[in-house]
Amino acid sequence: MVQPLLDNLRALTRSVAQALGGASVDQPGLTGSVSSKFDRFLNQLFASPGVPPQDALAALGGRPGFVWLAGKPRAQELGGLRLLEMSGMTATTAAAPAERAAPQCEIGEVRSREDLDGWFGVYSEVFGADPNARQEWARINEVLGPEGEGSLLLLLARVNGMPAATGAAFFRPDEAGLYCFTTLETMRRRGLGSGLVRACHAAARDRGIEHAVLQATGAGRRVYARIGYREDQSLHLLRPS
Predict the structure, then answer these.
(1) 228 and 91 Cβ atoms separated by less than 8 Å
(2) How many CA atoms lie within 13 A of 167 on its CB side?
(3) Which of 31, 52, 78, 110 is 20 to 30 A distant from 150 in Cα terms?
(4) What pLDDT sits at residue 155?
(5) CA within 13 Å, CB half, 218
């Protein structure tokens, strides 16, 4: 499967598996890792053309997860499975002009246990992760975060001292991948998401990285486009219910 816009996600998935002792999936036409019983984001598989969606899904072993398909399958191939239309988007990390009304929040790195509790609380409420995944994220941040190898940055936005929004960036030598952008419903439309994206870009620039990539839903595509992202490719994501 040739989908360069997923290369960063594949690398993150491998690093997560190493941190959690996850199982690698290496089958004909299907690769990836399964690392969690609780959080679908931590289980990601990548299918080549010709792999039936049902077969790809079976490789998750009944765990929650995502399967990225090489193309859009026919309705009869899906058999009622849920397919999401995603957009692979890219941008430069160059500093953008200052926003007219900068978000009134404090954005900081997740370093302490309190930080992680706040980050995971927002992430799990919005993204729907099982509370049991909190310890997995603690381990991931310990191994990959600022106190570990430094390839992963978790960011938390607070409003009036209270956790309100999350973001994350995974750094490769020439690219930053942006993930896990969630905002509490009561805190939306305040520019928190764009503030977190800009913070990720700033961290990438500090590392000499000029290129950023992300995978966006239909609703998210419009938000990221306003920040300077362009849609490079349509992606097809199989998400078990």
Answers:
(1) yes
(2) 23
(3) 31
(4) 98
(5) 4
Tokens of 239: 């998400």
Residues 73 and 178 both lie in one domain: no
- Residue 1 confidence (pLDDT): 44
Predicted confidence at residue 100, as pLDDT, reads 57
User: What distance in Å separates the CA atoms of residue 48 and residue 69, rounded to the nearest whole number?
Assistant: 7
CA–CA separation, 214 and 237 (whole Å): 14
Q: What is the pLDDT of residues 18-29, one digit of tens each?
A: 999 999 999 999
Question: 164-211, pLDDT tens digit by residue?
Answer: 999 999 999 999 999 999 999 999 999 999 999 999 999 999 999 999
Residues 80 and 189 in one domain: no
Contact between residue 172 and residue 179 where contact means Cβ atoms under 8 Å apart: no
Range of the domain at 172: 91-232
Calculate mean pLDDT across residues 48-66.
92
